[in-house]
TrEMBL record:
InterPro entries associated with the record: Amino_oxidase (IPR002937), FAD/NAD-bd_sf (IPR036188), Flavin_amine_oxidase (IPR001613)
An MF annotation (GO) of this entry: oxidoreductase activity
Region (Disordered) residue spans: 119-153
Keyword Oxidoreductase: yes
Signal sequence range: none
Binding site for FAD: E37, A38
This protein's name: FAD-dependent oxidoreductase
UniProt domain Amine oxidase: residue ranges: 17-446
SUPFAM superfamilies linked to this entry: FAD/NAD(P)-binding domain
Known cofactor(s): FAD
Domain of life: Bacteria
Assigned keywords, A-Z: Oxidoreductase
Length: 468
């Protein structure tokens, strides 16, 4: 049991990546910190379930190597990121097309605009018979798009314009993007001077996947930041599952810092009350929960709308031939926004001889989501999915806070001296945003407390179990 009168300098409420990264910065500065987490493990939304040797993420995680906080957050130095194949693979007009390949990442020469049709997929949605040969041969160009329309990316000139636009975006400082006029992303795209085909065939499905927002109501500034990260980095997954990131942060904290199974019921500037251990006194409190829980603890804090996300995991012993690609549907012909054979990207996620296919459905899922997803996947991968085994279907109604315009990317993290808040709802609704909000909040706390030394004179470390 915790001593009711136990004191730490800072109590952090919530062991998601925002709270854990803030705790890391605080303890590194010599500030005694206690992280209280209501669940029985750390990680919050970045949870990974282990089922029969598979590692199943509740979230269809897409990280970017260009997320600055993955580099800047202390403790993440040994995080292994597994990259997707360069760019994305688009299914459109009955074929696969590789798009958005950066220079120097294994394909295009000198530009972002390499587009290659890798092979034909079956034409009829109702005839998902597997083709004799793989739908894509990694590293081998089979043909260039030959359809009259050049769908889904338009003509060679259209593609060159897209490449130039992405190259420009990659080189534009974030602050310049944040000074642009702000519109819903879908409306802003139309004003960019790009052909409708490029927008509908590539940018819409890509942005929907990156923002978890199928209707593109997100602020155009956030959309620009997401596209910039795409254009200047590589999409990737954490090796071992989404939980690898928060678990690494938790492991790097001093022993006894994280206490799981402790729900905070109220907060003040100098104490928190817990359901299990009564009051804990401290010099500052950082609320690092999701937006809804934060508003319960801090009445008056705004609760945003959320984008629901469903992730469906299948296994098969005959992996489709798309290699390590992220596959998007340019035709928007079904519920799946993006899918990948994730065991090809991160082999640790599936036992030997099995492939793990993870697919993400944005918005409200259809009634029989598994059947609808299987039918769509049969078309996207060009194989029969009838014998694929379903490993898990994870629905998260409040997955990602909506970032409609006007969206403040730097919501205040210091509410009062002694009371702070962080989490993805204070920044962008991404792992980058959550980590960055933790960065800002810990800086504000250290400034108020007087950085560099502990205010708290030793009390015994409480004997509640530490998170695994
Ligand atoms: C399905 C899905 C898909 C996503 N896809 C992507 C993606 O592709 N790319 C990307 O960058 N991001 C993605 N995200 C978003 C990303 O996962 C989140 O932005 C990030 O994990 C948020 O971290 P956090 O620390 O702010 O909050 P959380 O992870 O929500 O952590 C908050 C913690 O607070 C705890 N808590 C709540 N109330 C209390 C209380 N009263 N007392 C104690 N503890 C409490 C919770 O249990 C939780 O552990 C996705 C999220 C979901 C759900």
């Amino acid at each position: 049991m915790l001593e009711p009168a136990y004191q730490a300098d800072v109590v952090v409420v919530g062991a998601g990546v925002a709270g854990l990264s803030a705790a890391h910065r605080l303890t590194s500065a010599g500030v005694t910190t206690m992280v209280l987490e209501a669940a029985h493990g750390v990680g919050g939304r970045m949870a990974t379930e282990k089922v029969d040797g598979f590692r199943l993420d509740r979230i269809g995680q897409l990280l970017s190597t260009a997320y600055p906080e993955l580099r800047l957050t202390p403790g993440l130095g040994t995080l292994v990121l597994r990259p997707f194949a360069p760019g994305v693979l688009l299914y459109g007009d009955g074929r696969h097309h590789r798009a958005g390949v950066q220079a120097g990442t294994g394909g295009a020469r000198g530009a972002l605009h390499a587009v290659r049709a890798l092979a034909s997929a079956p034409r009829s949605p109702s005839a998902p018979r597997p083709p004799r040969r793989p739908v894509a041969v990694p590293g081998r160009q089979v043909s260039v798009p030959r359809s009259r329309s050049g769908a889904p990316l338009g003509t060679a000139v259209d593609q060159a314009r897209l490449g130039a636009a992405l190259t420009r975006l990659a080189g534009t400082p974030a602050e310049r993007l944040l000074a642009r006029p702000e519109l819903p992303a879908g409306e802003a795209l139309a004003a960019r001077g790009l052909p409708a085909r490029t927008i509908d065939g590539f940018l819409r499905p890509l942005l929907a996947a990156l923002l978890c927002d199928p209707d593109l109501t997100t602020s155009s500034r956030c959309a620009d930041l997401a596209l910039r990260a795409f254009a200047s980095g590589r999409l990737c997954l954490p090796e071992g599952g989404a939980e690898a990131l928060p678990e690494l942060l938790a492991r790097m904290l001093p022993a006894g810092t994280v206490h799981t199974g402790v729900r905070v019921t109220s907060v003040a500037t100098t104490s928190v009350t817990t359901a299990e251990h009564g009051e804990i006194r401290c010099r500052a409190v950082l609320v690092a929960t999701d937006a809804r829980a934060a508003a319960e603890l801090l009445p008056g804090l705004r609760v945003p709308e959320f984008h629901p996300v469903t992730v469906v995991h299948h296994t098969t012993d005959e992996p489709p031939g798309t290699g390590a690609s992220l596959l998007l549907d340019a035709d928007l012909g079904g519920p799946v926004a993006h899918t990948a054979v994730v065991s090809q990207i991160d082999p640790s996620r599936a036992p030997a001889g099995r492939a793990l296919v993870s697919s993400t459905v944005l918005g409200r899922p259809p009634g029989d989501v598994d059947t609808a997803v299987r039918m769509h996947l049969a078309r996207l991968y060009g194989v029969s999915t009838a014998r694929w085994e379903t490993l898990g279907v994870y629905r998260t109604a409040e997955a990602v806070p909506a970032m409609r315009p006007p969206h403040d990317l730097r919501r205040p993290v210091r509410l009062l001296a002694g009371l702070y808040v962080c989490g993805d709802h204070r920044d962008t609704s991404t792992v980058q945003g959550a980590l960055h909000s933790g960065h800002r909040a810990s800086a504000a706390i250290l400034a108020d407390l007087g950085a560099g030394r502990s205010m708290h004179v030793a009390d015994p470390v409480p004997t509640v179990p530490r998170a695994a």
